[in-house]
Amino acid sequence: MEMSNQIAMAMIGRAETDGYLDGPLIVIEQLADWEKDIFVFMFKEVEKYLSYKKERVLSADEIVSMFTYVFAKAGEAVTTWYNDQKFTFDSHGIFDGKIPMYNDEKLLQYFKTVTLASDMADAFGQWSSENAKLCSQNDIDPILPLFEALKWTWRISINLTIDYLEELGFKFD
To answer: Which of 43, 80, 105, 154 has its CA 20 to 30 A from that of 111?
Structure first.
């Protein structure tokens, strides 16, 4: 099975098992466009960071921080889209776990109770352990599987945010 499909199955499987996802993923064109924008931005930030560190390795804490960043920014993206505003983001918190989240207080409190980011990081860690030699044996940059897992975390986070906002009475078409 192709690496991308393996990672997708691992991430979606964990989200379903942990109760974050109970149906097909919702696809909203504007949020999909923003997904591309934020991941191109993040990839450039990772490259700059790794160049600064002078190594191609991220620590476990840095990886968890990236999952947390994606989770928080996906939540922001949903409310920004819903309120017909411009989605903006910067690099604050990508690697240090100090991610600012600009959102409604109820949503902020909800996000503080949800362990999706760490659960998705754990699912990626498990996949990585089970496929430890895949990158080296196939000449694949190890950052690519990480970004595949982050992509699915973004999509699952979008759905989780929409589900929560619908519980609060927000209407989505």
So the answer is: 43
